[in-house]
Write a structure and sequence with these properties.
Blueprint: H1 10-18, E1 26-30, E2 43-44, E3 59-62, E4 76-84, E5 98-102, E6 114-117, E7 121-126, E8 129-134, E9 156-158, H2 166-174, E10 179-183, E11 187-193, E12 197-198, E13 209-210, H3 213-224, E14 227-234, H4 238-251, E15 254-258, H5 269-276, E16 279-282, E17 287-288, E18 294-298, E19 301-306, H6 310-328, E20 338-343, E21 354-364, E22 367-372, E23 389-393, E24 405-410
Parallel strand pairs: 4-5, 11-14, 11-15, 12-13, 15-19, 17-21, 20-22
Antiparallel strand pairs: 1-10, 2-9, 3-5, 3-6, 4-8, 7-8, 16-18, 18-19, 20-24, 21-22, 21-23, 23-24
The structure holds ligand LQZAQKY5, molybdate ion and magnesium ion (MG).
Length: 420
């Protein structure tokens, strides 16, 4: 009599896995190599921004008080005492009737309290000396970017766990983070099991299929921020599979296997877990696809037994393995971002289990629509390529029709959310 497994709720399964979450190590890397990595330290403003009062325009620095009587009929004349560009430090303190010719980004000279743009000034020379005049009254602090007006020294700008995007990288450079502390990438091992499997460079033979899961999972690991380590494909043979898993477990932070987790005669994972003395957290989840997803722990290592069926394998990774990797990488929002969307196509078939339907999102007139990406079967591979989200259709007795509001988990969002 075949073993009857009791499915556990998805939330419970996610919670059980996350009880074994580990924060990874930190490492210090050059800013040049930091794209897409996750910060293992906060970014703190190490100085005021700007760190000096500066000009936002090319023009003249003046004392506003000297323009009080300026008008169209009464231009005020100023002697231009200095000429500075960005990066130069003014040396002259402005006195009554004096101006400094100043460029965008340059430090405001002492004595000046406003900037008049070139466009409202007239420049000329008299006896080979530069002068300017203005026909408008200027106000104190007009057109001056004040020291610290953007950020004050000491402010925490970016929290640890944030992904380094181009804007974060600009901040690293702004505050002199030549080296930055990031989360070390976890090494995630992959073993594909199945006597039917061929490698990608092999010709098809009767009864055989190419191993697509290992390549798909490697790509999911990379996308999630881990380092994948492929241990090859194994025939459904107990001793070699056991030895390969034992060896891999010594070398990786997380181990993923695909196939062999169900109740078939050649599904060896349950017996291998037993021999490895791994504690099985669950081996059946109330969901489709991926109901056979099995998670086990052995000391501080976590072992994901993902389904052999490609769509089930894919979903199992995104729901259970990805959050573990995200937590390892210090991401405080380790779960897939969940949004509400309008179902564009009907899904009339009811299902007792919650379905994670491979789908994609479109936007139209301020509304978000979710469309089926292809055939919705756990054994299909073709719908995955078009998927940008997993539509969540709760289990029950009814189907869903176009126009219904549903939830969707975004697959390409790098930021995530803090709860499942
Ligand atoms: N009597 C029952 N049979 C099955 C049950 C069940 O509850 N009772 N569950 C079904 C469900 S649901 C799924 S999902 C599959 C899970 O099977 P396994 O995880 O044990 O995987 P395999 O049996 O090894 O293979 C299943 C399927 O996937 C193909 N496969 C395997 N590896 C790969 C790979 N690396 N790349 C591409 N495709 C792969 C394999 O050829 C099989 O077709 O079990 C159901 N059965
Ligand atoms: O684990 Mo199976 O996909 O539920 O189809
Ligand atoms: Mg099987």
């Amino acid at each position: 009599m075949v073993e009857r497994r009791k499915p556990i709720p998805i939330n419970k399964a996610v919670e059980m896995v996350m009880n074994y979450r580990l924060k990874g190590q930190k490492e210090i890397i050059s800013i040049h190599e930091s794209d897409h990595r996750r910060l293992a330290e906060p970014i703190i403003a190490k100085n005021n921004v700007p760190s000096f009062d500066k000009s936002p325009y090319d023009g003249f620095a003046l004392r506003s008080i000297d323009t009080d009587k300026a008008s169209t009929n009464n231009p005020m004349e100023f002697e231009v005492v200095e000429h500075i560009g960005a990066g130069q430090v003014p040396t002259k303190t402005l006195g009554k009737g004096q101006a400094t010719r100043i460029m965008t980004g340059a430090k405001i000279p002492d004595g000046a309290d406003c900037i008049a743009m070139f466009e409202i000034c007239k420049s000329y020379e008299r006896n080979n000396n530069p002068f300017m005049s203005i026909k408008r009254k200027m106000n104190k602090d007009q057109n001056i970017i004040k020291e610290g007006s953007e950020v004050l020294e000491g402010k925490v700008l970016i929290e640890e766990g944030t992904i380094i995007n181009p804007g974060v990288k600009a901040l690293l450079a702004t505050f002199g983070y030549n080296q930055v502390e990031v989360a070390k990438k976890p090494i995630v091992g992959i073993i594909a099991t199945g006597t039917e499997l061929l490698e990608v460079d092999e010709d098809l033979k009767p009864g055989k299929i190419r191993n697509s899961n290992a390549y798909m999972i490697a790509s999911q690991i990379n996308k999630a921020g881990g380092i994948s380590k492929y241990y090859g494909k194994l025939a459904d043979e107990f001793d070699t599979s056991y030895e390969a898993m034992k060896k891999a477990l010594d070398e990786v932070d997380i181990l993923i296997t695909t196939g062999g987790v169900s109740v078939g005669d050649f599904d060896l994972m349950p017996a291998i877990y037993e021999k490895l003395k791994a504690e099985v957290l669950f081996n059946k989840v109330a969901m489709r696809p991926g109901s056979v997803t099995t998670v086990a722990v052995i000391e501080d290592k976590i072992l994901f037994g993902l389904s052999g069926n490609p769509s089930a394998c894919y979903v199992g990774f995104e729901l259970f393995t990805r959050p573990i990797i995200q937590h390892y990488l210090y991401n405080k929002k380790p779960y897939l971002k969940r949004i509400k969307a309008i179902l564009a196509d009907g899904f009339p078939k009811p299902n007792p289990f919650t379905r994670f339907v491979r789908s994609y999102i479109t936007y139209d007139n301020a509304s978000v629509y979710v469309h089926l990406a292809g055939m919705d079967k756990s054994n299909v591979v073709t719908s995955l390529a078009n998927s940008t989200c997993l539509m969540v259709l709760p289990g029950g007795t009814r189907g869903f029709k176009a126009g219904d509001e549903v939830e969707a988990l975004l697959l390409d969002d790098m930021y995530g959310q803090s709860d499942f």
